[in-house]
Amino acid sequence: MQSKFSLSLSACILIIMTTLAGADNYSNSELKKATAARHSQMQMIAYHTGLLSEMAKGSTAYNADLATAAAENLATVASMKRITLWLIGSEQGAIAKSRAKSEIWSDSIGFEKTALAFEAASNAMIIAAGKNVDTLRTAMSSIGKSCQSCHESYRGPKN
Amino acid sequence: MQSKFSLSLSACILIIMTTLAGADNYSNSELKKATAARHSQMQMIAYHTGLLSEMAKGSTAYNADLATAAAENLATVASMKRITLWLIGSEQGAIAKSRAKSEIWSDSIGFEKTALAFEAASNAMIIAAGKNVDTLRTAMSSIGKSCQSCHESYRGPKN
């Protein structure tokens, strides 16, 4: 009974803390900065995906060291803690240039799932990118699907 | 003798490889993209340093979870492989908006040293940020010195 009570109490505290975190009121300046930081994160993802994609297509010569480093950087950027970046109140319409759908917060479990899928695809790319161009190309397909899946569900139309 | 010969041969191969890497001719488009990606990296560093700095100054309330996440993201961004970002030929004057001094490449050992010092300061911040605002403030001082040291030696004047 003691153990069950402790568990319920912990669960309650967690719910209260989550609710409080969701109720945070960030200033417009904080929300704008977080949005800009997310855009930088996306830009770094696009840059490293681009390096890998060019090699996969044969537009640039395959280079195992560069491909591995690009994949490592991709996985690094994908692993960033979301708490500092996805501040509640920074959705499209509320903050200029933001394309973040409100579903990121209303469906936070689904959003976390797609983010974790992207982390997994990026991690899988590290070994694949260093092997040869064929394994890189196959892993690129998973990365592409992961990007598309998240954008379809959680990115709004162009501003 | 066999071992010394192998070592010398390895050293020669390394020198040749390094020279070749330095002689890479990147297209203007590749250099521009790498420069933009570096700016995104710097922007993410500035954002997370800003979050920590505001808490250190008392401008925002100290929040151990947010501070730890900010420090983790800082260390993550600092750890990115430099090979994809610091392409030779993307120095100030050669590429618009670049403020990278040519010393980054001519003194690559010194540059690597300052980059590793920043990684170390960011990693030290992870524990410090989660403890209390005083330990955060002390670690912030090392971060600031590390930023300043690199900018003084390797960042050119405003464009």
Q: How is this structure best described in words?
A:
- Two copies of one chain form a homodimer.
- Chain A is mostly helical and 159 residues long.
- The first copy, chain A, has a single domain, classed as Cytochrome c/b562 (Four Helix Bundle (Hemerythrin (Met), subunit A)).
- Chain A has six helices and no strands.
- The first copy, chain A, is elongated.
- The termini of chain A are far apart.
- Chain A binds chain B through residues 33-34, 36-37, 39-41, 43-44, 47-48, 50-51, 65-66, 69-70, 72-73, 76-77, 79-81, 83-85, and chain B through 33-34, 36-37, 39-41, 43-44, 47-48, 50-51, 65-66, 69-70, 72-73, 76-77, 79-81, 83-85.
Biggest chain pair contact, residues each? A-B, 27 and 27 residues
Work out the strand percent of chain A: under 5%
Biggest sheet record of chain A: none
The sequence of SSEs of chain A as H and E is HHHHHH
Total domain count of chain A: 1
- Described by the principal axes of the CA atoms, the overall outline of chain A is elongated
Number of helical elements of chain A: 6
The Rg value of chain A, from CA coordinates, equals 19 Å
The number of strands of chain A is: 0
Q: Which CATH C-level class of chain A is it?
A: Mainly Alpha
What is the H level of CATH, i.e. the homologous superfamily of chain A? Cytochrome c/b562
Q: Helix- and strand-based class of chain A? A: mainly alpha
Any low-confidence stretches of chain A, pLDDT <50, length ≥5? 9-23
Global mean pLDDT of chain A: 90
